[in-house]
Write a structure and sequence with these properties.
The chain is of the alpha/beta class and about 425 residues long. It has ten helices and 29 strands. It starts with a strand and ends with a helix.
């Protein structure tokens, strides 16, 4: 029998005329929520086709980052944030490498060099490298006691000062900052939340909803300072104060910076792969390098970098389908936020500001409830809910589908049951 020669994942066995399928090598770089979802999709769509290796920088297998705040607050245990045990990977034929990074990627040579010196060859590669927290470029930002809140490894550095009841300042009034503030308060700290903008979660909430959320946080004992810009962080050996540009001095033995994230595209960029704000991908989640895909927070699709779980999961589904030889396209995501922020249910979708559109609003400050619906041409264009979010997914689907709301317009604010009865 003549030696087999590989072409496009198939090997021809010479004179025998037999065709033997060889398993293609797939390397997934990044074992976060997007990377894991891609593995789940691939193993379900085409079990056994790929010889898969996944590389994660963190020591732990994939875990749910959304649960870091309740973990910090002591509401759940470390074991509750895990998504798949280590033996799940082996059971699905996946080689799991943790605690290592990929030092260099060579798309043309189809190989990745690990920080340990090991080299992985691949036929296809998925970049799921995620994002890094942005650190403020202010004096004192590198003092001991200035932390970020992004990974499981950050928890221990935050919990000890909080349990001592130390004064803590959280910089950033977006979702992650609010969650950090809530978790630290629940853990025992005296928390002040400072935010540059004039309202909390300005990317997800209008002024009225943000005002209700601010009141709810203050009711939990968190001081909220808006329109506040950090001038510097002071301390002799470690952080002692945070100074605002208006001159106010806030005592702090821990400062948590939660002002946003940036895509981790350095590995791709150094490999010659096209990057903008993230790793540029087409509608099939393919990068400019043949056989290399990018998904999740590291990917930029049609000029947009998404920082939410739902788009990352959609990316993973499309990339896995394409790798499995199926026809799949990603057309973007109408953003929706559906979370319990610091114990307060919050939901928004679509054009929630609704400039120039009709607004239908229902509000009850006593119960911290608020509903706003943006209507354009008898279609729901956007929605904000605070408090009761039971029908959030129904409203989200109405925004995404663009279906007329004429039959139940008068009862829209009262939820799905009333609308369907009408």
């Amino acid at each position: 029998m003549q030696p087999a020669t590989v072409r496009g994942g198939l090997a021809s066995a010479g004179n025998e005329g037999d065709i033997l399928k060889l398993r293609e090598k797939l390397v997934v770089i990044g074992n976060g929520m997007a990377g894991l979802r891609c593995l789940e999709e691939i193993t379900a769509l085409t079990p056994g086709r790929f010889e898969i290796t996944v590389v994660g920088e963190e020591a732990e297998p994939a875990y749910n980052r959304v649960l870091l705040s309740p973990l910090l607050a002591g509401e759940i245990a470390v074991g509750d944030v895990g998504m798949k045990p280590r033996d799940w990977y082996g059971a699905h034929g996946i080689t799991l490498i943790t605690g290592q990074s990929v030092a260099a990627l060579e798309p043309a040579a189809q190989r990745a060099a690990l920080s340990s010196g090991r080299t992985l060859n691949f036929d296809a590669c998925v970049l799921a490298t995620g994002s890094d927290p942005i650190r403020l470029a202010v004096p004192g930002a590198n003092l001991p006691g200035v932390e970020v809140f992004r990974t499981l490894g950050d928890i221990d550095r935050l919990v000890a000062p909080a349990r001592r009841g130390a004064p803590v300042v959280v910089i950033g009034g977006g979702l992650l900052g609010i969650e950090a503030a809530y978790g630290l308060k629940r853990a025992g700290a005296r928390v002040t939340l400072v935010h540059l903008m004039d309202r909390l979660m300005e990317r997800q909430l209008d002024h009225a909803a943000a005002g209700l959320l601010k009141s709810a946080l203050e009711a939990k004992g968190i001081e909220v300072i808006l329109s506040a810009e950090t001038a510097r962080i002071d301390g002799d050996v470690s952080v002692e104060h945070l100074v605002l540009k208006d001159g106010r001095v806030l005592p702090a033995y821990l400062v948590v910076i939660a002002v946003g994230i940036k895509s981790r595209s350095g590995l791709a960029s150094s490999a010659g792969i096209a990057c903008g704000r993230g790793i540029t991908v087409d509608d099939r989640m393919q990068t400019s390098a043949p056989g290399v895909f990018a998904i999740g927070e590291c990917a930029e699709h049609r000029g947009t970098v998404y920082g939410l779980v739902e788009p990352a999961y959609e990316h993973a589904r499309v990339a896995a389908s394409v790798l499995a030889g199926k026809d799949a396209m990603y057309d973007g995501t109408v953003l929706a936020t559906n979370l319990k922020v610091s114990g307060v249910p919050v939901f928004s979708a679509g054009d929630f500001e609704g400039a120039g559109a009709e607004h239908i609003v229902w509000r009850d400050d006593a119960s911290c409830s608020y509903r706003k619906f943006v209507v354009r041409g008898n279609r729901l264009a956007g929605v904000v809910l605070i408090g009761d979010t039971m029908d959030a997914l129904w409203y989200r689907d109405l925004v995404r589908s663009g279906d007329p709301i004429t039959p139940f317009r008068s009862t829209l604010a009262f939820g799905r049951a009333y609308a369907e009865a009408a």
